[in-house]
Amino acid sequence: MTARYLLDTNIISAGFGDGAGDPAQAAQRVAQRLEALKAEQEAKARTAREAFAKAKTAILSQHHKESADLTQRQALRERQEKKERQAKFRRGLMGLIDRLTGRRKRIEKENTIAAERALMRDHEERTDLARKQETVRKRMQAEASALEAEHREIARALGKDISRLNGVPSPTKDHARAASKEPQANNERPAKEHKARDGPKQER
Predict the structure, then answer these.
(1) How far apart are CA 20 and CA 13, in angstroms?
(2) In the chain, fewer beta carbons within 10 Å around the N or the C end?
(3) How many CB atoms lie within 10 A of CB 107?
(4) Sign of the torsion angle spanned by Cα atoms 182, 186, 187, 189
(5) CB 2 within 8 A of CB 158
(6) How far apart (Å, rounded) are the C-alpha atoms in residues 72 and 69?
(7) In terms of pTM, does the model score above 0.70?
(8) 131/37 Cα distance (integer angstroms)
């Protein structure tokens, strides 16, 4: 939410009773209030950045653990499945019969297909996990960027209003400058009039 402030001097004066005689003083009070708000927004922005940095570190650590756990589970499963595939082969005389009848060759083909499918499954699991983790990180980054942009916009608006308030003129100073010019103008006019009354100098 971006704060906006109306800089009409009559409204400023009405809002600050004891400063009604000098809009510049009233504007200065408002500027000081906005300076405090700006400092508060900057503090909130710093807190938000620190919180995001901590959350990012935590989520990266969590994702690393998830990936490591998945790798470990897949390795254990691969060893177990490989053991089960090897167990299909019979030994001794029955193994010899399997070779002669073609049963062993059929089992080898089935095992090869099963191993390839297992590799594809493991790859899909890793890809799916990586995609989910990336989605989480992108969402966190988008939220942090939006919050940072909001803080910047508020700070920019407050800074702009502070500059405008500091530029409100003081009627006391304007009156003093005008008063200082009046004597100079009054001194110049009689000199011109005196010269006109004397007229041109007569030669003797």
Answers:
(1) 4
(2) C
(3) 16
(4) positive
(5) no
(6) 5
(7) no
(8) 41
* Helices 103-166 + 23-87 axis angle, to 10: 180
Calpha distance 174→177 (Å, rounded):
5
**pLDDT per residue as tens digits for the range 120-150:** 999 999 999 999 999 999 999 999 999 999 9
The residue to which tokens 């001194």 are assigned? 187
What percent of the chain has pLDDT above 90? Answer: 49
Q: Which amino acid is at 181?
A: K
Question: Counting runs of H as helices and runs of E as strands, what totals does the chain give?
Answer: 5, 0
Whether 36 has a pLDDT exceeding 90, the answer reads no
Cα–Cα distance for residue pair 67/69, rounded to 1 Å:
5
Residue type, 131: R
Q: What is the DSSP letter of 108?
A: H
Q: List the alpha helices (DSSP H) in 88-168.
A: 92-101, 103-166
Residue range 72-116, pLDDT digits in tens: 999 999 999 999 999 999 999 999 999 999 999 999 999 999 999
Asked if residue 133 lies in contact with residue 19, where contact means CB atoms within 8 angstroms, the answer is no
Residue 197 Cα distances to 70, 187, 193, 203, angstroms: 110, 16, 6, 17
